[in-house]
Amino acid sequence: MKTKKASISPQAEEYLEAIYRLEKKKGFAKTMELARTLNVVPGSITNTIEGLERRALLTHKPYKGVKLTKKGENIALDVLRRHRLAELLLTDILHLDSNKVHDEACKLEHVLSDIILNSIETFLEYPKTCPHGKPIPTKRTA
To answer: Structure pTM?
Structure first.
């Protein structure tokens, strides 16, 4: 039986994806680093983090930073999966330059349905890496 995804905004997805990347590099995502990464003012970071924490997608430790919960990490990995498959769609099917697909993939990652994403993955014969050599996360079922 298919589980229903919680509704989450593209902005929240971007935050979770950025937190995941920072967390993998440093163990925690500090709010100032997150603000720089997302190119937003620190005040908006605080409000969004509070909302994501209320939804049990991350935990915030003052003066240390934020860490994703398992639920938040699963969403971040799903976003990364969609992003990297979108990059492959743009490079391998539409033949765009791999150096120019990141921004376009950022737009597509929020609108690709599971049906389209699964079709892309099948058509590309279940690729393991994106055009930049980064691993494509496996499909999450929960």
So the answer is: 0.87
